[in-house]
């Protein structure tokens, strides 16, 4: 991508990850890490992040230098198998779960039409699955993260194939009918606490499509509207202001990068894992496939910025994962400052009062051998005894 780093300098590329369904205090609700992404995108030349960070239900903020990359694709990118090819426009197809009630189907079709007429988005065709997808969701008792499955994944894959063959779409938005929770079960989430029980299976759905077809995909759940609650947390409010969560998904997919196999590295402007300069993650969520692949790859490793304020239900710290080239920061304010310094070629430690200590000497093998010989000589020398009266 075109960068602003200056003549003779490579564009600075950052990756921002907030793992889905982990109860992240920032990014675990309704697009509440989007302000962080907006600020970060103004500092880097290219920001790579995923729908959990950028989706805000009815709300979306376009960022020209930001790549909207589904989680499975982000992992393959981090491993070096896929490159990210920026596009001007994707042909987006829409899949609606047969299990959605007719009124909710019409609401989602109105959203699609509105994005076409008001935003000019290239949403081409839609299809309805040939069987209800039977979405199931739960919290993993071992990790505390949300997850789930589809009873009829075959129906989803047939619907994607229908759109790809019938409309030549480049990206797919999926709307699955989720089981309705009772208001009591949603109290914590609506108050900006706990784990989003929808998010885990949403990731399962999009992973399935991207893995099978190699095109961008994101999911929006279909749910019955909840009763009005004046005490809703601002972090959850984006999901309270409309009938669907679809607008942000269609907007994100309309310019999501396409995926390029590593055997075809000739594409101009394609971003690869080797281009990544920094990775920003919650401090106790450093064990994801993408983070580990980027930080353990051979050669030049990106700077890992671990944000302590963004707590999750996980316990995967940089130290526990054995990661190096790590800077721990208290919050995203500090993270963005570290990125600015790193991009400028300044050691972030130099910005702290006691950040720079004396230079450490590494001895050559010859010096080390000479030191060992001198030490042995001292051990053999007679010891002078001094009496004390």
List the helices and strands and how they pair.
Blueprint: E1 13-16, H1 34-41, E2 46-49, H2 51-54, E3 66-68, H3 71-78, E4 82-85, E5 92-96, H4 102-118, E6 123-128, E7 135-139, E8 146-150, H5 153-167, E9 171-177, H6 187-190, H7 199-213, E10 217-222, H8 246-254, E11 258-261, E12 276-282, H9 289-296, E13 303-307, H10 318-321, E14 326-329, H11 332-343, H12 365-380
Helix pairs in contact: 3-9, 4-8, 5-7
Pfam families: DUF3326 (PF11805)
Organism: Physcomitrium patens
Protein name: DUF3326 domain-containing protein
Protein described:
The chain is an alpha/beta fold and 389 residues long. It has 2 domains: 11-86 and 257-355, Rossmann fold (3-Layer(aba) Sandwich); 88-247, Rossmann fold. 31% of the residues lie in helices and 18% in strands. The protein has 12 helices and 14 strands. Helix 3 (71-78) packs parallel to helix 9 and helix 4 packs across helix 8 (246-254). The radius of gyration is 25 Å and the shape is elongated. The model has no long low-confidence stretch (mean pLDDT 92). InterPro entries: DUF3326. This is DUF3326 domain-containing protein.
Gross morphology is: elongated
- Compute the number of strand runs: 14
Give the end-to-end Cα distance, rounded to a whole number of Å: 80 Å
How are helices and strands ordered from N to C?
EHEHEHEEHEEEHEHHEHEEHEHEHH
Label the CATH architecture of the largest domain.
3-Layer(aba) Sandwich
Averaged pLDDT: 92
**Strand-pairing-aware structural class:** alpha/beta
Strand order, largest beta sheet:
3-2-1-12-13-14
CATH class value of the largest domain? Alpha Beta
Q: What proportion of the residues is helical, as a percent range?
A: 25-40%
How many whole angstroms does the radius of gyration measure?
Answer: 25 Å
Instruction: Extract low-pLDDT stretches.
Output: none
């Amino acid at each position: 991508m075109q960068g602003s780093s200056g003549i003779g300098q490579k564009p600075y590329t950052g990756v921002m990850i907030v793992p889905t369904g982990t109860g992240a205090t920032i990014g675990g609700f309704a697009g509440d890490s989007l302000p962080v992404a907006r600020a970060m995108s103004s500092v880097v030349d290219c920001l790579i992040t995923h729908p959990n960070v950028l989706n805000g239900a009815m709300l979306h903020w376009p960022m020209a230098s930001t790549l909207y990359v589904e989680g499975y694709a982000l992992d393959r990118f981090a491993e070096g198998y896929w490159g990210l090819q920026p596009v001007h426009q994707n042909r987006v197809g829409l899949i609606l779960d047969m299990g959605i009630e007719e009124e909710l189907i019409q609401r989602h079709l109105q959203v699609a039409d509105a994005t076409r007429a008001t935003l000019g988005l290239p949403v081409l065709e839609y299809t309805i699955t040939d069987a209800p997808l039977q979405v199931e969701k739960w919290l993993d008792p071992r990790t505390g993260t949300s997850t789930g499955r589809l009873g009829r994944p075959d129906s989803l894959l047939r619907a994607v194939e229908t759109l790809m063959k019938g409309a030549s779409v480049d990206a797919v938005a999926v709307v699955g009918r989720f089981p309705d929770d009772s208001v009591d079960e949603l109290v914590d989430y609506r108050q900006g606490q706990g784990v989003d029980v929808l998010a885990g299976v949403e990731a399962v759905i999009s992973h399935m499509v991207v893995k099978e077809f190699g095109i961008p995909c994101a999911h929006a759940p279909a749910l019955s509207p909840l009763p009005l609650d004046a005490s809703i947390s601002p972090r959850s409010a984006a999901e309270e202001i409309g009938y669907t969560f679809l607008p942000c998904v269609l907007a994100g997919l309309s310019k999501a990068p396409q995926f390029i196999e590593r055997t075809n590295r000739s594409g101009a402007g394609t971003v690869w894992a080797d281009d990544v300069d920094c990775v920003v993650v919650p401090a106790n969520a450093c064990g994801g496939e993408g983070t580990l692949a980027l930080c353990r790859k051979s050669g030049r490793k990106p700077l890992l910025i671990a944000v302590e304020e963004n707590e999750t239900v996980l316990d995967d710290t940089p130290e526990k994962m054995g990661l190096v080239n790590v800077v721990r920061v208290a919050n995203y304010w500090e993270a963005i400052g570290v990125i600015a310094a790193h991009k400028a070629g300044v050691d972030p430690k130099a910005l702290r009062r006691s950040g720079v200590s004396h230079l450490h000497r590494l001895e050559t093998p010859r010096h080390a051998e000479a030191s060992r010989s001198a030490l042995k000589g001292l051990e053999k020398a007679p010891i002078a005894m001094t009496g004390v009266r």
